[in-house]
Structure formats: C-alpha cells, structure tokens
Amino acid sequence: MSIVNDYDPNLPLERASTIPASWYINKELYELELKTVFSNTWQLAGRLDQVSQPGQYVTTDIAGEPIVVVRGNDGVLRGFFNVCRHHAAAVMTDVEGKAAQLRCPYHGWTYSLEGDLKGTPDFTGVCDFDRAGNGLARVEVGEWENWVFVRLGGSNSVSLEEFLTKQLVEEIRLITVTDLHWFERRHYSFDCNWKVFVDNYLDGGYHVPYLHKGLDSVLDYSNYMIENGARHCLQWSPIVTEGAEAQTGAVRKGDRALYYWIYPNFMINWYDGAMDTNLVVPRGVDQTEVIFDFYFPDVDSEEARARNTASVAVGQRIQDEDVSICKSVQRGLNSRAYTAGRLSVRREAGEHLFHRLLHADLSAARGNR
Ligand code: FES
Ligand SMILES: [Fe+2]
Description:
Elements: H1 27-35, H2 37-40, E1 43-47, E2 56-62, E3 65-71, E4 77-81, E5 96-98, E6 102-103, E7 110-111, E8 117-119, E9 138-144, E10 147-151, H3 160-164, H4 166-174, E11 181-190, H5 194-201, H6 208-211, H7 213-216, E12 225-228, E13 232-238, H8 246-249, E14 256-262, E15 266-271, E16 274-284, E17 287-296, H9 302-333, H10 349-368
Antiparallel strand pairs: 1-10, 2-3, 2-5, 3-4, 4-9, 6-7, 7-8, 9-10, 11-17, 12-13, 13-14, 14-15, 15-16, 16-17
Bound molecules: FE2/S2 (inorganic) cluster (FES) and fe (ii) ion (FE2).
C-alpha cells in the first residue's frame, strides 16, 4: 500500500511529523492493521482472576477473531479460536464462566477443556473424519501480573516477556499491581479511528490543562515526564495537593501518577491506591471502543465501595471530556486542508514512538507480500 510510504520513520523528533491523515481514514490501511498490528502483537484477552480455576474461561474478540481462553484440568491456561470445527459457530458464548467441557450451542459438538474434540452427535457413518485433527485451533497465550494475553500469529515468534521487555516487567513488578483487585468494567465509544485515542493518550499531558481542568489541578504539568521504552511509553507526573479540585483531589492521591502505554493498544494508569487499564479496540475505521477496568486495594468493604465509586466517576468524567475532542480530530483528519502535523519535542515523544512502531509493522507486512 503506497500510503505506508508517506511516513518517514527515520526523522528525529525535532523534524518528525505525525503519520499521514490518510492512515486514520483509509479502510484498506485499517484492514492491514488488523492483519498485522493487532494479529502479531500480544493482546489483552482477560484477567487472571477470571481463569484461576480449571474450567474457568473468558471469551473475547481480537482483530475480528473470536477467542476463548480456558484453564484445563491440568491447570494449564490455553487459548483457542472460539470457532467450532463443524460449521464455525462460536463454541462459548458467555463473556466468562466455568464449564466442565466446551459445548457448541449449534449442534452440540463438545471439546475438552484442553481443546480436543470429544462429542459429535449423529456423526456415525462419516468417512475419513479425523477426530484428532478437529480440535479447536490454538493461539498463543501468556500470563503477566493481573492479566492474560493472547497472540494470534505472525511469523516471528516473540514471547510475551520478550514483547513487554525486561525493563517494563521489572517496573510494573515494583508497583505490585497484584495487590489491586478488579472492581468494575466500563465501555466507552469514540467516533474516531483507534489511533486518535492513542495519540490523545500519548501527548505528554499537552491537552490536560485545556481539556481536563480537574485532572490538571492535581498534576504538576511542568514536571510531567515522558520516557520511551522499546515498545512502551511511560508518562508520569508528580501529584500536587495544593489547589486540587475537590472531586479529583479526593481520589487521586500519592506522590505520583504513572501512565503506561504498551504498544499498540493497552494502557495501565496507576495512582497510589487506584489503577485502571484501558484497552483500545478498533470497531471500524472511525469507530473505537475503549474498555476500562478499575482496580482498588479493597473491593469488598462497604466503606471502600463509596470511595472506589467516586474514583471511577472521576475516570468517567475525564473520558467524557475526551469524547468530543476525538470526534473533532477525526473530522479534521478527513479535511482536504490537513495532511499531517508536527510534534512537540517537549511533549509528544510517545506519539513519535507509536508512529514509528506502526510504520515498522505495516511496512514489514508489505515486504512479505
Ligand atoms: S457448528 Fe458447532 S456443532 Fe455445528
Ligand atoms: Fe484526555
């Protein structure tokens, strides 16, 4: 695709531009992203607490592919395409659950928790049917901290740990996110390409003073830092208490806020005593779903519940503030007056990394054709 060449990944930040506007509106490029960026990277599939026992499973879809992750009777976590080998129906239809076996709702074929085909009603007399070869198709699965990731494929096999890098694994280990427990999930929809949301996230706090007055009152804008890793970016800010807006100040405490983005579409936002993760899911070239999971140290006591709910409300307010600007950007990207924009050296190093990684994935795919 020729528009992939419209971006020059070799320019230093001081000279770089954003990826071209066409990348945000072109359907072919969007399809190419699903086949490359979203298929070759490790993608969040669920939480470890959802699949701690044998028989527990979660379903999701990644790059349009139905996926199920299930813990076997042997305690091993496995990932499969959630596609029945008979006539392709989804075998597991709930978001999560616990089952003794995986039974397809269409014609009742059953698979073991390990993915082997077991039961095939009314199937006698079928010649040359290779039962052993008709188990569920596997995908790679990996566990890290509170989460389960899967990888659909791709030629170069990179383990989850390698993908995340030692540096990131060590940094996240130090903030002990395993002490935080899942509280609530919220879905937000954005009328924009998924990269508009990621760019907005990665702008180094550039938009915070203008769009998020509440958040701005607790962050130290001039000391906001941006640190790029190989495939992630950490943005962090000291937290200030003086002059904090009441609603935000009550639930954004501690001495710093950490915002981790992991290429291409997963974010971990950490405050002292609160964390949320964001999964950015493309739903069309100009439609994006962002799934937020909120975590807190105490998710059981009544008293904590009120505090946790107040914290989620602050998160909700920040998202609401981003919805209209993302829509506005998407409209502008379609304008004949706009082709690409320059980047702030002080603020937008994370976006620069994102765009270079995207270019690398998209151009490698072209080379393979
Ligand atoms: S499609 Fe699953 S049993 Fe027929
Ligand atoms: Fe924002």
